[in-house]
C-alpha cells in the first residue's frame, strides 16, 4: 500500500511538473512575441519622430503631393527647380536696398539679406534674413509660371525685436 501511495505521489508530481513546464514555456513564447511586437512599434515610432524632427519633414523633396503638382505641370527635375527658386531669391539680395522679400528697409544703413531658404511645398518658402545685427524670418509665396519664370510674394515677415540695435 505504501508503495502504491509513493507511486501515485510520484506520478502526480510528474504531471504537475509537466503542466508547470508547459505553462511557463507557453508564457515565455507569448512574452517574447509581445516584446518583439512592442519593439517593432517602438522602432516605427522612433523613426516617425526622427523623420518629423530631422528638419527635413517639411521640404519640397519630401512632399509627394507637391512633387506631383509640378510633374503635372511638366516639371520633372525637382532638384533643378529647387536650385532655380533659391537662386531667384539670392539674386534679390543684390538690390541696393536689400532683399525686398524681407519686407524691411535697411536699419542703421545695413540692408537685410536672406541667408537660408527652406522650400516647404509647391507654394510656400520660409527663410531667415539678417543685416548683420538684426534677425528675422519671412514666409514667401511663390508661383512657377507656365513660361518657367518664378514670381515671389511676401506673405508675412517678422523681425526679432531683441536683435535690433
Features:
165 residues, single chain, 45% helix, four-stranded antiparallel β-sheet
Total domain count: 2
Count of DSSP E strands? 4
* Mean of pLDDT: 87
Strand order of the largest sheet: 1-2-3-4
- Major sheet: size, sense and barrel closure? 4 strands, antiparallel
Shape assignment: elongated
Which range does the strand content fall in?
Answer: 15-25%
Helix content: 40-55%
Briefly note the structural class of the backbone.
alpha+beta
Backbone CA Rg: 33 Å
What is the string of SSEs from the N terminus onward?
A: HHHEEEE
Q: Unreliable runs, pLDDT <50, ≥5 residues?
A: none
Distance between the termini: 105 Å
> How many helices does DSSP assign?
3
Can you offer a commentary on this structure?
With 165 residues, the protein is α+β, with helices and mostly antiparallel strands. Helices cover 45% and strands 21% of the residues. It has 2 domains: 1-54; 60-163, no CATH class. It is built from 3 helices and 4 strands. Strands 1-2-3-4 form a 4-stranded antiparallel beta sheet, with helices on one face. The N and C termini lie far apart (105 Å).
Short structural summary:
The protein is built from 3 helices and 4 strands, in the order αααββββ. With 165 residues, it is α+β, with helices and mostly antiparallel strands.
Task: Give the topology.
Blueprint: H1 2-53, H2 64-72, H3 78-91, E1 113-119, E2 124-130, E3 135-144, E4 150-159
